[in-house]
Structures are given as C-alpha cells and as structure tokens.
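Z., the sequence and structure:
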Amino acid sequence: MRRDSTERLPSRAEVGDDSLDDRYAIRHFYGKTLAEAEELFAEDSPLTYTEDLMWMEPVGFRFYIRAAIRYGLSDRATGDSDLINGLQSTLSHWQEFAPAALVPSARLLADFCSAVVEQFDRYDADPEIYTDLREDYQKLAETFTAVSRPFRGAPRAPSLE
C-alpha cells in the first residue's frame, strides 16, 4: 500500500513499550499507515484491535484511533456491533485513566461519538447484549464536546486524512 509522504507514522516507542499488551499493539500496528490500519478493523476481529488501542501510548492511540473511526463511519462498518462496543470500552478507558491525552483529539472523538448515536441502528447492536451502548456513546460525546471547546493556545485537532 502506498504511503502518503506527508504522513508521519508513530515511532515504535509512541505505539507502545515492552509490556505484554503493548507488544500486541506494536505487532499489529507499528509501521502501518492509516489506510493499512483501517483494513485491520475491516478485515478481522475488531475487538482485538480496539483492545490494542486501549493499551497504546498516547501518540500511537491518537494516530491509530483515526483509522478505527474512518472504518466505523464507513459503510463497511454497517452491522459491526463488535467494533462500536470495543471502541466504547477503549474510549471510556482512556477517558477514565488518561483524559489529558485525549484533549488534542477531543473534537474528532466528540464528532465520532455523536455520529454513532445518530447512526446507532445501522450497527445492529442487540439491546439485550449491548444494554447501555447508545447512552454510553451519548455521554462520551458530551464529555469530548466539553473538552474540545476552544481555548487560547489549543492545538489543532487531527483530521481523519
């Protein structure tokens, strides 16, 4: 797959250290472009890769979450309740344990969470299995929206491109 020459990929250390969980994130994501990472979510079990995002270092997470979001907003994700369930867990984990790391991506995350709420039915998330998933995304959207409100000196939010 062709690499965009302007796209700086995260270094190995920015994806993860040598902890057990990080080793899997490195194995799956290190050296991949956004397009290549997006294919991981589309072609295989998304829960494996959303869990990798949970344990990545902040720079790697902020880079590769864009691939998960691009896939999640695409038509290919229709019916992929595992993806949105896994991403909700990952985003909630980051929000609880490292909220400051999410600030640069807060607008992107807010927009994604809002889109999931608006398009929730297309993911075919069985309410008997995913009891509060839509509400969890609504809360995340509200949290990320509040965090993303502009303030002087704020870094520019990343795009999906």
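The mean pLDDT is 91. The two ends are 15 Å apart (CA to CA).

Let me know what you think.
H.
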